[in-house]
Design goal:
The structure holds two protein chains of two kinds.
Chain A lengths: L3 H40 L15 H11 L10 H19 L8 E3 L2 E3 L9 H22 L3 H32 L4 H6 L12 H16 L11 H4 L9 H26 L17 H12 L2 H22 L5 H29 L3
Antiparallel strand pairs in A: 1-2
Helix pairs in contact in A: 1-2, 1-9, 1-11, 2-9, 3-4, 3-9, 4-5, 5-7, 5-12, 7-9, 7-12, 9-11
Chain B lengths: L1 H22 L3 H21 L3 H25 L2 H6 L7 H21 L6 H10 L1 H10 L2 H22 L6
């Protein structure tokens, strides 16, 4: 029989972080949809949702209610088990990846040192890459089980795209791991306390660029949204889904976006490290040093979230700006451009590390 | 105690899903059970503190190899595959060999000790990525390189088999 203290400890070390993280993810997954619609609307000189709540602020709630109460249709010729499992696999893999992400350094809350992560894995980056790889199954299973040509095509395209872009992405991540000397996300952030990896010339910016492009493709977003290209494939792999299962796919897409953005901030933009203006060069001169002190006073977690939302805004911006690629262009970009560049970057990074220039 | 319970769960699911992989008539379902199998093998690795191997198990087997299986299998006609014969005429022989191998494994387990470097491998795998890399590139460099050459041969072989024959 475990005593009271153990139960309380269990709740504090596992229960509370999981609940906080879950509510954070779910609130984000709901409201990022609204943010996307608003951002796209304003970029196209429209207003976006305005009716539900002040400037459409209650739109996500209305959407969620609609998803839950709509009829959940399973096509007669569909493979029932696979059809209903597919969105769950997609969702669980998206949720699972958040476990490894550190949202800030150890902080003291109510007189207790709290870790701002659920689990500090030694192989954090690899874990997230592995889960992203499994997420592909959700898409391809959904496409196959729907028993619909468009869904199948969408599933195929998505799987091919995700497999192709995983490779340059993994090499960009390996480059970062090499620079930091660790696969642990917390240690990767700490390794950037002097210099963010994005400004470690010449490999930093290149790896960042590779990761950013591969990240957009991994999340199946414009301009790489071939799997759900509505002008050719209706809605791609989730054409046949309705009700809450459709909602799950929709939410999981935003969760994947958050994971990719969080990883980009953690690996290249110093995670929770504050922005400083030329700390070594001009750091001592009064007006700049005041600004630097003020910036450093902002809590670390807010910095990480600011970077996260910056990337998410960037994704929406891309979607509003760039037209969709053709499928052969998509494959050419992955295999003939990104892959050689990523291999080269890794070689240069390894050389620099060995020569002690980093 | 709790570790043994978790191991028992993993082992049970591994055995059951492995059997289901070869008995399902629908090839896509076979692949799904194989995914389940890989997940639980990764779980056993985690239980042995070999986190890196668990991640690699998922990335390489589940994330790359099995996806390619699924790619091919999805193109098959499920109805025709379901009606196809389950085995060819050599099945009694194969079942016999399977039984012999199973008996050998059972004998080894009952004896209770394994010769050789098995224990060291478990220790190294549990020690972390850095130590694993060092051991792989120093002590086991030759086997490591040989296995990469074998993989390369497999790769080239597959390309040669799939290549169109051109008469020039």
């Amino acid at each position: 029989m475990p005593d009271m203290q153990q139960i309380i400890n269990f709740i504090i070390t596992i229960g509370i972080p999981v609940v906080v993280l879950l509510s954070f993810i779910l609130a984000n997954a709901m409201y990022l949809q609204l943010m996307e619609r608003k951002v796209l609307a304003h970029m196209q000189s429209r207003l976006g949702p305005m009716r539900t709540g002040w400037h459409g602020l209650l739109q996500p709630v209305a959407d969620a209610v609609k998803f839950m109460f709509k009829e959940d249709i399973i096509p007669a010729k569909a493979d029932k088990w696979v059809f209903s499992l597919a969105p769950l696999i997609f969702l669980v893999m998206a949720f699972g990846a958040f476990v490894a992400i550190p949202f800030g350094p150890d902080t003291v809350i109510f007189g207790r040192t709290v870790h701002l992560w659920v689990s500090n894995l030694n192989i954090g980056v690899l874990y997230i890459v592995a889960l992203a790889g499994i997420g592909t199954y959700g898409v391809i299973m959904a496409g196959w089980a729907s028993n619909n040509k468009y869904s199948l095509m969408g599933g195929f395209r998505s799987a091919a795209q995700m497999i192709s872009y995983e490779i340059p992405m993994a090499f960009a991540i390996v480059t970062v791991a090499l620079m930091a000397g660790s696969l642990n996300l917390t240690e990767i952030v700490q390794a950037q306390s002097q210099k963010w990896f994005i400004i470690v010339f010449p490999v930093g910016p290149v790896a960042f660029f590779l990761y950013l492009i591969a990240g957009v493709a991994e999340t199946n977003r414009a301009p790489f949204d071939l799997p759900e290209a509505e002008s050719e494939l209706v809605a791609g792999y989730f054409t046949e889904y309705s009700g809450i299962r459709f909602g799950i796919f929709y939410m999981a897409e935003y969760m994947n976006m958050m994971i990719v953005s969080l990883l980009a901030s953690i690996m290249f933009l110093g995670g929770w490290m504050p922005v400083q203006i030329f700390p070594k060069l001009l750091g001592g001169i009064p007006p700049i040093s005041w600004i630097n002190t003020a910036l450093a006073a902002i809590p670390p977690t807010l910095w990480l979230l600011a970077k996260l939302y910056f990337f998410i805004f960037f994704y929406m911006w891309i979607r509003a700006t760039l037209p969709r690629y053709r499928y052969d262009q998509l494959m050419t970009i992955a295999w003939k451009i990104l892959l050689p560049i990523s291999l080269g970057t890794l070689l240069v990074a390894a050389f620099m590390k060995q020569a002690g220039w980093m | 105690m709790i570790n043994q319970l978790i191991f028992a769960y993993f082992a049970a699911v591994i055995v059951v899903s492995a059997v289901l992989v070869i008995t399902r008539k629908n090839p896509v379902h076979s692949v799904m059970f194989m995914l389940l199998l890989f997940f639980h093998i990764a779980g056993v690795f985690v239980l042995l503190n070999a986190e890196f191997l668990a991640a690699v198990q998922l990335i390489v087997y589940a994330g790359a190899i099995l996806i390619l299986f699924l790619f091919v299998v999805i193109l098959l006609s499920v109805e025709r595959e379901s009606q196809a014969a389950r085995a060819n005429r050599f099945w009694p022989w194969l079942a016999g060999f399977g039984l012999i191998i199973a008996g050998e494994i059972a004998l080894l387990v009952l004896r209770g000790s394994f010769p050789g470097e098995g224990k060291m491998a478990v220790q190294v795998a549990g020690a972390g990525v850095r130590d694993l890399g060092v051991v792989l590139y120093s002590k086991f460099l030759v086997p490591f390189e040989i296995s990469s050459v074998i993989l390369l041969v497999g790769l080239i072989g597959a390309v040669m088999l799939a290549k169109k024959k051109t008469n020039e």
